[in-house]
Amino acid sequence: MAKEALKKSKSGVKHLQVIVEISCASSPYHLAAVRQAYCALFDCSIEEDITAVVSMPLRKVLLRLVSSFRYDKELLDIEAAASEANQLHEAIKAKQLDHDQVVHILATRNFFQLKATFERYEQMHGSPIDEDISSVGKGDLVSLMKMVILCIRCPERHFAEVIRTSIVGFGTDEAALNRAIITRAEVDMKLIKEVYPIMYKNTLEDDVIGDTSGDYQDFLLTLTGSKF
After folding, report:
1. In which band, very low, low, confident or very high, does the pLDDT at 227 lie, cut at 50, 70 and 90?
2. Which tens digit of pLDDT belongs to each residue from 140-154?
3. Average pLDDT over the chain, rounded to an integer
4. Which residues bind Ca(2+) (predicted)?
5. Which of 5, 19, 108, 140 is the 20 to 30 A CA-CA neighbour of 12?
6. Looking at the predicted structure, is the pLDDT value of residue 228 above 70?
7. Which residues are CB-contacts of 3 (< 8 A; sequence separation ≥ 6)?
8. pLDDT of residue 14
9. Right CATH number for 78-153 from 2.30.110.10, 3.30.70.1070, 3.10.450.710, 1.10.220.10?
């Protein structure tokens, strides 16, 4: 999926979702395994393909994310969370979303530390970090950074959004629907199913049933734990 996303330069950031998901909604060991498999399958690194296909400043952010190996245990430094919340706020206020320190914080801190930093950000500055990023304006970098924040802070909401977007409207984006359900079936599907009706006033199962049929529908429902 990563290779498909990086086959050629495309507009927008939707096709880069899978890169962000691998980097920010997976364990560091899974990311390392994907990078190793990528090299074995395609005779080049994922970093090389990002460099060749993705333009700046998105390239800068993605390269740091896929190259990181985060500490994976729950280790918190509350003072550091407050300090780095302020650093993030200053960079966002200056509309420097790709500032070196911003990228460093998002790419290296463990997920528990980052969640604490985002909480301190809202406590100290009165609004969630993603809202402040939105206030910077529109554009691919804003969209990418909001995606990164959501995947780190609440991956189940990100994947609920991916599923919903793949279903609504004319036709079904089967690639996105398959990716979200298959990759999260044994990770956080229960949480996705819990937040989905809160976000969309409908259950995930009902939306899948309403947009798919036959064996394909049975397959997806089985992976969501709704059919045995």
Report:
1. low
2. 999 999 999 999 999
3. 94
4. 167, 171, 211-212
5. 108
6. no
7. 38, 41, 42, 49
8. 92
9. 1.10.220.10
What CA–CA distance (Å, rounded) separates 15 from 69? 23
Tokens at residue 1, please? 């999926």
Q: CA-CA distance, 47 to 35, in Å (whole number)? A: 9
Three-state secondary structure of the chain? CHHHHCCCCCCCCHHHHHHHHHHHCCCHHHHHHHHHHHHHHHCCCHHHHHHHHCCCCHHHHHHHHHHCCCCCCCCCCHHHHHHHHHHHHHHHHCCCCCCHHHHHHHHHCCHHHHHHHHHHHHHHHCCCHHHHHHHCCCCHHHHHHHHHHHHHHCHHHHHHHHHHHHHCCCCCCHHHHHHHHHHHCCCCHHHHHHHHHHHHCCCHHHHHHHHCCHHHHHHHHHHCCCCC
- Going by the annotation, the residues of the binding site are 167, 171, 211-212
Angle made by CA atoms 192, 54, 9, in degrees to the nearest 5 = 95
CATH topology of domain 1-67: Annexin V; domain 1 (1.10.220)
Fold of 155-224: Annexin V; domain 1 (1.10.220)
- Side chain identity at 205, as an amino acid letter? E
User: Residue 177 has which token pair?
Assistant: 């629907």
